[in-house]
Amino acid sequence: TADLAIFSGQTAASDFLRGSLLEATLLGSGNLVLYLPEAENGAVFNHPLIAWDGGTACVRAISAWLSMGFTPQQATILCIVDPGEDMPQPHGLENRLAWHGIKARTEKRNRGFDTVADALIAAAQELECGMIVMGGYGRFRYSEALFGGVTRGVMQRSRIPVLMMH
Q1: Model confidence pLDDT, tens digit, residues 29-48
Q2: Contact at 8 Å (CB) between 71 and 102?
Q3: Is 101 exposed, middle or buried (0-12, 13-18, 19+ CB in 10 A)?
């Protein structure tokens, strides 16, 4: 019944088949989940990196984030694509963020040899973003457990907060 569930690095620990309480909450509650890794610095929620893939989970995460009243001055909408692949268009997302007083810019990056998770984390560091806003578990949980995935990769390696919704 909560609007937001908050997890630290220890509570997000998972095992291969059962997953974790964070995963169960993200997949089963329909609510926004904030993951706070055990980072060196305190959590700073300014200048979020919005990981845009055009999916429903991403749209829901952005809507929920905006409804929580987090209103930074700027945001970066980032699309990670394979070389030669078209970028999923944010369909007016910059305008929507502007209505909330957030100046946003969209950036496209080629994935290269990195995983999408590593490319997102590298971009967040390079752009000095304070958090990542993204959809969670676009693929089935067991598929992510067997083959890896963006959600699990970001949670394992991010040093900044991650706000997600499935």
Answers
A1: 888 888 888 765 555 678 99
A2: yes
A3: exposed
